Amino acid sequence: MAQKGIREYDAKRMLARAIGEASGNRFTFDDRLVLVTPDTNLATLEKEHPWLLKEKLVVKPDQLFGKRGKNRLLLLDAGLKAAKAWIAERMGKEVTIEGASGKTAGVLTHFLVEPFAPHDAEYYLAFTSSRDVDAIHFSPKGGVDIESVWDTVVSIQIPVLADPAKIEVLSKLPNIPEKEVVAAFIQALYRIYVDHHFAYLEFNPIAFSQGKLIPLDTVAKLDDTASFQCSAQWGPIEFPRPFGRPMTKEETYVESLDAKTGASLKLTLLNPDGRVWLLVAGGGASVIYADTVVDLGFADELANYGEYSGDPSTELTYEYTKTLLDLMTRKPDPRGRPKHLLIGGGIANFTDVAKTFTGIIQALEESKDKLQKNHVKIYVRRGGPNYKEGLENMRRLGERIGVPLEVYGPETHMTRIVSLALEEARR
Amino acid sequence: MKDDYELFTAETKAFIYGEQLRAAQRMLDFDYLCRRVEPSVAALITPERGGFEKLFWGTKEIRIPRITSLSEAASRFPAADVLVNFASQRSAYDVTVEALEIPTLRTIAVIAEGIPERQSRRIAALAKAKGTWIIGPATVGGVKAGGFKIGNAAGTMENIREAKLYRPGSVGFVSVSGGLSNEAYNIVARATDGLNEGIAIGGDAYPGSTLLDHLLRFEKNPAIKLLVSLGEVGGTKEYEIAEAVKEGKITKPLVMWASGTCAKVLPGQVQFGHAGAKANTAAETADAKNEALREAGVIVPTSFDDYHLKIKETYERLVKEGVIVPAADVTPPNIPLDYAQARAEGLVRKPTNFISTICDERGDVHNYCGVPIDKVIAEKCGIGGVIGLLWFKKDIPPYAREFIDMVLQIIADHGPAVSGAHNTIVAARAGKDLISSLVSGILTIGPRFGGAVNGAAEHFLYGLRNGLAPRQFVDELKKRNVRIQGIGHRLHSLENPDARVELMKAFAQKHFRRTPLLDYALAVERVTTQKKGNLILNVDGCIGVLLVDLLTELRFTDDEIDEMIRAGLFNAFFVLGRSIGLIGHYFDQVRLEQDLYRHPLDDILYDVPRAPEKVG
Questions:
Q1: Are both B457 and B578 inside the same structural domain?
Q2: Residues near B80 by beta carbon (within 8 Å), at least 6 away in sequence
Q3: Does B204 touch chain A (CB under 8 A)?
Q4: Contact (CB<8Å) A414/B183
Q5: pLDDT surpassing 80 at residue A222
């Protein structure tokens, strides 16, 4: 929801399509772009895109990470044959990227191929948004770590209520050749930034050559909530997951359940050997449960983050619980210590608690043997409509399946079951 | 006039934008629980229709106007200064911008989730310029204990009662999340003398009013003595709170926690439920925020697990210091349970006025006598099978389905001259619609038209059941001067049999286990044809006796068969089948654009007396 990174390919495609209209047909961008995916047939690429044979090419991974030059993942000024070989060698390979926020390992799957553009100057240009203003940041020194030359950056602030067609950039720019052309270009780009509901757009560098700005390295985020009014401008758009660890089978399955319903089902596996497992209702409450496990010093034992909310059907809560229990009971703790399952939640607004527990109870009942074998102890805390019946059903379940199970209602503080479980885990 | 720190009082009137009758009822129930003098909902704004809506005020019903435009609502109810905007993600912006132009509206709660950030930012900027309060977007709203409630805030009546929201306490609470507000109200109710006002600003990146905005409002409100807040990871608004505390703009004790401290152990791609809940820089992490708040002198627990204890501690200190005089408890009135809810909870029952044993349309798939409609189609039940389910309440075998299909096909039409078709044609030509024309044809079905099927079945059943030998049966009816129904044909005879009858007979003899009534009728036919060759079992007779044999096949008892016949079984087949033909005649006449029919005068015998007989 909200701000989502998009591929450089999509960003450049959208800009190339929009720049003509936004600049009163004064400017254009090269729209010759190819996105190579695992499904692309490299052998026949030039049939669909004959220009590949005529141009020198730039190739780079297009997976929402930057610093590709530094990470030696950038091919410049290459012929098609070399470009294909370069891609083939890297497709499907795991690499470790060094970025601003540390190292991230992931698999290369998407590459952007575009014409190599010889140029005179490299600038820095970025558009950002905050509560009251948008900001345009410009520096004549592009293509470097912009933080290291931040004193050369001019920032132009535009109030959110200003008319994007009437902004003035020229007087604020530093002295550069053909300054008024660059200013007009920036104004046109800002119009696109606003119209297309970009949340972030950064070119580092953007080249200037023969009276034109040419985006070289582009990072963009869209506000995906605007899709209902931007589908025409955006075209077919994909919001890829951030570069990094691919999802596990179970996470993918839960994501598919989530996609099926208006309700919400989320699962992130943190540590399959962890002894503290969360099955928590509600987005806000689920964060607080995970917080409390961490804040009480058990980050290492936290096995997962997840939530179910928005009144999922019995079938969905059953499937979700089964997936979680399966992960939890793959193997007992090597030191024979108990595992702790926290079935938590705040006081529901309108959701019938007994009803949402039905699927959970069913899955727990089926996993009886595995729960016993793994020495699982269950803690339940919930409130809201019909909670008494829900809690009573849980209590009876514990007796029925012979698994230790403690039950608490709204009279007990929401996260008390976390400290109860952790006090036990500490022993 | 309200003080500027007070958005809601027990006199506040609001508009609800959108089809939100349940939310409106919940607001009225809350009002009633608080013993408000007047309901808080001035009108519903529903662009699709005006009029009024009946809602409950305690046990009695009151009328709440429906108004189609905001501006009209505002001019009719100038005292209403709150808009609860339930417009969808797509239209919430336009509705809010329109509302911002209305000077009488002082507070706008925007409920919709997923409003584009640029629109939310514009709303916030416009509202600031106008001095209007925005709560939301993406929020459940808020509640003024003992006075006013926005839409669905605070959950069920049970929640509201448990958290004592029907009377004001001393605590001002503001959070990002609406989902946790019930939990928070519960915590506050258990740790203190209760909530005074609670607001959820919504989880988007750019809420129209911030945590700080509301805390500053609470600071000014003399009834609020203790501030409690729940922030979260993402954004930097909590630092403004720390600043405000440092600068002395907030002097009342503030207990606050920013959630999301677990973010540091989660992989970067995990997005929490809220759009705004994501740390992009170190300053946006929950840990950094909690630390900054603590440094500024805010009371910050070590984890959420101590949150309630910190609130309780602070409250008790304020009571001891005499700052808070605990609010007295009051007993709220009862809110009658809605019938549907009471029934769901097993608290009430009532006898039903209707019963249905042939089908059920509740649930995901409608069913015919317990068979889901998709299965009816998948198993190719056909019209015959459906009749089996809906008329006989039986899952009938394929041959029976096929036989019913055959009967309907045979009955479907008998030319334009018979009374039913004739009537339909005349009605169609008079310009009447399909239903009227069809019905005028159907209305002729009865003892004479189509009645032979019924009559034949009754006659032969009488003979068979009373053990009359065929000859005896013919003689007895002759003696009683009754013509045997289902016997005799204008053209067909033994030598020139009716193909339809032959087909049906052959089918039944092949597939039915037994055909006792057909056998009896054929025995009677052997008697009558001795007299005259065309006194054969005709098509009506054949259908009549075979339908009875079919019911016997389907294990109906004699009593049940009699009941079905009395209920009009044979007419049912006739009406259903013949409707096909009558509809055909109607379409035919319409397509041919036939004019009004007038019967030729020379086809009428006029035999009118010169003068009427004088009587009396």
A1: yes
A2: B13, B14, B15, B42, B43, B73, B74, B104, B105
A3: yes
A4: yes
A5: yes
Check: complex ipTM more than 0.90: yes
Residues B181, B309: one domain? yes
pLDDT tens digits for A36-75? 999 999 999 999 999 999 999 999 999 999 889 888 999 9
- The count of domains in chain B is 3
Residues B282 and B396 in one domain: no
Whether B304 has its CB under 8 Å from any CB of chain A: the answer is yes
* Residue to test with chain A: of B261, B294, B302, B345, most A Cβ within 10 A: B261
User: How far from B321 is each of B225, B256, B317, B325, CA to CA, in Å?
Assistant: 12, 21, 6, 10
Residue B146 φ/ψ region, left for φ over 0, alpha for ψ in the -120 to 50 degree band, beta for the rest: left
Domain of A9 in residue numbering reads as: 1-30+118-238
Task: Name the phi and psi angles at A130, rounded to 5.
Answer: -135, -175
Residue A241 to residue B523: CA distance in whole angstroms: 84
Nearest-Å Rg of the Cα atoms of chain B is: 40
pLDDT in tens, A141-173: 998 888 889 999 999 999 999 999 999 999 999
Q: What is the pTM of this model?
A: 0.84
CB distance B179–A414 less than 8 Å?
A: no
What phi-psi label fits residue A297: left (phi over 0), alpha (psi between -120 and 50 degrees) or beta? left
Give the model's pLDDT for residue A335: 93
pLDDT of residue B338: 85
For A244-271, what is the mean pLDDT?
Answer: 91
CB contact under 8 A, B115 and A383: no
Question: What is the tally of structural domains in chain A?
Answer: 3
Tell whether A211 and A256 lie within a shared domain: no
CA dihedral A321, A326, A331, A337 (to 10 degrees): 10
Which range of residues forms the domain containing residue B112? 14-320
Cross-strand partners of B107: B82, B133
Q: What value does the mean pLDDT of chain A take?
A: 94
B441 vs B125, B571, B591, CA distance in Å?
Answer: 70, 13, 18
Same domain, B364 and B423: no
Mean of the pLDDT values across residues A325-338?
95
Domain of residue A50, CATH code: 3.30.470.110
What does the pLDDT read at residue A70? Answer: 87
Mean pLDDT, range A283-289, rounded to an integer: 93
Same domain, B388 and B428: no
> Chain A: residue nearest B160 by CA?
A349
Q: Which amino acid is located at B233 in the chain?
A: V
A122, A143 Cβ separation under 8 angstroms = yes
Asked if residue B204 and residue B305 are part of one domain, the reply reads yes
- Minimal C-alpha gap between B270 and chain A (Å): 8
Position B2 scores a pLDDT of: 66
